[in-house]
TrEMBL record:
AMP binds at T31, R36, D57, L58, V59, G85, F86, P87, R88, Q92, R133, R144. Monomer. This is Adenylate kinase. Consists of three domains, a large central CORE domain and two small peripheral domains, NMPbind and LID, which undergo movements during catalysis. The LID domain closes over the site of phosphoryl transfer upon ATP binding. Assembling and dissambling the active center during each catalytic cycle provides an effective means to prevent ATP hydrolysis. It comes from Caulobacter mirabilis. Pfam families: ADK (PF00406). Its EC number is 2.7.4.3. GO terms for molecular function: AMP kinase activity; ATP binding.
Amino acid sequence: MNLILFGPPGSGKGTQAKRLVDERGMVQLSTGDMLRAAIASGSEIGLRTKDIIARGDLVPDEIVIALIEERLPEAEAAGGAIFDGFPRTVAQAEALDAMLARRGAKIDTVVRLLVDDEALLRRITGRFEEQGRPDDNPESFKTRLGAYNAQTAPLLPYYEAQGKIRSVDGMGSPDEVSKAIRESLETVAA
């Protein structure tokens, strides 16, 4: 099963993806994690994206798609992928659909985490204070949230037209959200 965890920055996609990895053995394809690893490695991609991420801007499609494509064989061997933070635009969704179709696969479902923007700002501020991640500072978050609302939220009609959206209340505890996701995935598998 290939699924997308969909929601704004700070909505808990990473936390829930890790839980799904533990429960189902799937591979989490987190573009944020992959880009942070590229930056830490000092690779060419990392150097190109470091300033982009620090500003809160979206990384160009060709970089993100190349990172995803590198990891697809691993996901296929594990029985599926959890896309976390990708796709972010309709162009990326179309590229992902084409990439998967070439491999005889598809996106099976999109789990949308419904959250409140003000609560997200409090969540991000706390995470920034605890972990010090530069892309989690409140000002950068506001830029990322604006980019999400302008560029990523338009993906909803794209996946709604395919009948793939499953909405889950993302404001509960991590355990409550995990339970709701499990229940939603059971309807897909049935």
